Amino acid sequence: MELSTNKLPVHVSIIMDGNGRWAQERGKERVYGHLNGVESVRAVTEECVNLGIKYLSFYAFSEENWGRSEEEVGYLMKLMLESIGKEFEVFMKNGVRFVVLGNRERLNPTLNAAIDNVMEGTSHNTALTFILFISYSGKWDIMHALKKVVEEAVSSPEGLEKARNMKLEDFDDYLVTAGIPDPDLIIRTSGEQRLSNYLLWQGAYSEFYFTDVLWPDFRKEEFRAALAEYAGRDRRYGKVK
Predict the structure, then answer these.
(1) Which residues are CB-neighbours of 154 under 8 A, at least 6 positions away?
(2) What is the C-alpha to C-alpha distance for residues 173 and 121, in angstroms, rounded to an integer?
(3) Fold held by 11-137+182-231
């Protein structure tokens, strides 16, 4: 598919959905879908590097996902640990900065250590910032930010004055995504059309692209189709042009 690079998004975020259904359609356990979904992550990441897209993020594991079976949660944590380790050299080769955002207090020490290692090792890379949202939810993010505002407000008169005069854009600095631009385009696979408690604040003016394609089947061509549709939209941010 021909794709103009004149209107590419700065930040693309993806809600990966359909791994379980993809596996079940093939008579396999749900974990088989998660394993194959990793290949889609690689394909989309490579395409972002090729196109010069600066930020790519994935909703990898939500706060609500902790309610899944112990077996599936354990497998997902193991898969993340293995994938993070395997991709380090690829990140370095392609100039990719790796970032994990979310309630990391709920992750096990081994996974947290691996995350810290790769984040530190890739921190100076500039071609693409690759973000995984793990143990994340939009409501948790906003509440977490609000608590930090309150802590500052009660700690000193200066903090209280800062809170009183806070503007909407100032609140961005308290979210886990501080310093990262809001997503221009949010893609969700598998036919579902909802945010599922994801980037509730940051996605206020994002463009949405929904596809029936299950995540393990979402590769380069499907990604380019989403980018092509985005390029054809007129973003007005509530204004009249």
Answers:
(1) 160
(2) 24
(3) Undecaprenyl pyrophosphate synthetase (3.40.1180)
Rounded to 5 degrees, what are φ and ψ at 213?
A: -65, 130
- Known catalytic membership, residue 170: no
pLDDT single digits (tens) 6-28: 799 999 999 999 999 999 999 99
Read off the pLDDT of residues 46-89 as tens digits, 9 standing for 90 and up: 999 999 999 999 999 999 999 999 999 999 999 999 999 899 99
The model scores a pTM over 0.85: yes
**Phi, then psi, of 78 in degrees rounded to 5:** -65, -40
The model's pLDDT over 32-49, given as tens digits with 9 standing for 90+, comes to 889 999 999 999 999 999
| Amino acid residing at 101 | L
| Active-site hit among 6, 17, 112, 184 | 17
The values of phi and psi at residue 199, to 5°, are 45, 50
| Active-site residue (options: 6, 19, 50, 65) | 65
Q: How many CB atoms lie within 10 A of CB 57?
A: 24
**Which two tokens mark 71?**
């077996």
- Measuring CA to CA, which residue among 84, 83, 76 is closest to residue 30? 76
17 is catalytic: yes
How many whole angstroms separate alpha carbon 22 and alpha carbon 30? 8
